[in-house]
Design brief:
This is Endo alpha-1,4 polygalactosaminidase. Pfam families: Glyco_hydro_114. Keywords: Signal. With 307 residues, the protein is of the alpha/beta class. It has a single domain, classed as Aldolase class I (TIM Barrel, Alpha-Beta Barrel). 31% of the residues lie in helices and 18% in strands. Strands 1-4-5-8-9-10-11-12-13 form a 9-stranded mixed sheet. Helix 1 runs antiparallel to helix 5 and helix 5 runs parallel beside helix 7. The protein is globular, with a radius of gyration of 18 Å.
Length: 307
């Protein structure tokens, strides 16, 4: 089993989002639980069934000729090449504003807690994964993140009461799509009921589509067929697919609708250069190289290249 992708811990907890989360944690939203699928059922959806017509037209903006950027470590409006190159597609933290004129994707952590939200989630410990001794489980690579446990319908409903308004907030701020992180949690933590995790993912898809947002599968190459065909995800965000030789697992399912991000350290560990990644016949057209911390252009370690 390969090492887990070294995900950048996002910083999306802006003041407006924190206020909304605090409010929802104080009590369950009356309409959120109705979006949760019935226990044990994940319904297969065709693309035409899963997304509104207007959303389907916006997905056409994910074209192979677009300029894509991944901005979880700080936002900027154009690439610092020459006089500035416009950005057509961008992923930003949920606390940031979408980029005017670009297809803007909103990052939400749907299966783990955020680093600065652990204390709030401890007030809802029954929604977090515990080990056999009753202790809260943390991600060994990100020890300030707890793991959500969507194993029962009641837990999924209450998790959606908390995460659902974050998805709504992305729509309210004008994002076009949402990216849900840590879809692979159930595979990394076997104590989580995998069917329950897929049910929660389906509920996120329904919530996003209900607000007119497209929704991206994040990583979890082994789940692409299920994520698209059964759960209804519209496109994918794939980190390090070239480094781990799995780009075709995304493109076979999503075609050109794959936003691919490589990092120099992982490519080097795989004995690859970014040129190698770009010449791979299986690589998605929208592939970029970013610095590990996804910093802004005036930072020393900033790196951006595109195939």
């Amino acid at each position: 089993m390969r090492p887990r992708v070294r995900r950048h811990p996002p910083r999306w907890m802006a003041t407006a989002v924190i206020v909304g989360v605090a409010a929802t944690m104080g009590g369950c939203a009356a309409d959120a639980s109705s979006s949760t699928p019935a226990e044990g059922t994940v319904h297969s959806r065709s693309e035409s069934q899963s997304q509104p017509e207007s959303q389907s037209r916006r997905l056409s903006d994910l074209s192979a000729s677009s300029v894509f950027d991944y901005q979880l470590g700080g936002t900027y409006d154009s690439l610092p090449t020459g006089s500035g190159t416009s950005i057509d597609i961008v992923v930003r933290d949920a606390g940031a504003a979408p980029l005017t004129g670009a297809y803007s994707v909103c990052y939400v952590n749907g299966f783990q807690t955020q680093p600065d939200e652990a204390d709030r989630w401890r007030d809802h410990e029954d929604l977090l994964l515990h080990d056999a001794a009753g202790n809260l489980v943390v991600d060994p690579e990100w020890p300030d993140e707890h793991i959500l446990d969507p194993s029962t319908a009641a837990q999924r409903s209450r998790i959606l009461d908390i995460i659902g308004p974050m998805i709504d907030g992305c729509a309210d701020r004008g994002f076009d799509a949402v990216e849900i992180d840590n879809l692979d949690t159930a595979d990394r933590f076997p104590d989580i009921d995998r069917a329950g995790a897929m049910e929660l993912a389906a509920a996120y898809v329904d919530r996003a589509h209900g607000r007119g947002l497209a929704i991206a599968q994040k990583n979890a190459a082994e789940l692409t067929r299920t994520a698209h065909d059964d759960l209804g995800f519209d496109f994918a965000v794939a980190e390090e697919c070239a480094a781990f030789a799995e780009c075709d697992r995304y493109t076979d399912v999503y075609g050109d609708r794959v936003l691919a991000v490589e990092y120099p350290d992982t490519l080097a560990e795989a004995g690859l250069s970014f040129t190698d990644a770009c010449t791979d016949p299986d690589r998605p057209p929208l592939m970029i190289l970013r610095d590990r911390d996804l910093v802004v252009p005036d930072a020393t370690d900033y790196l951006f290249e595109r195939c």
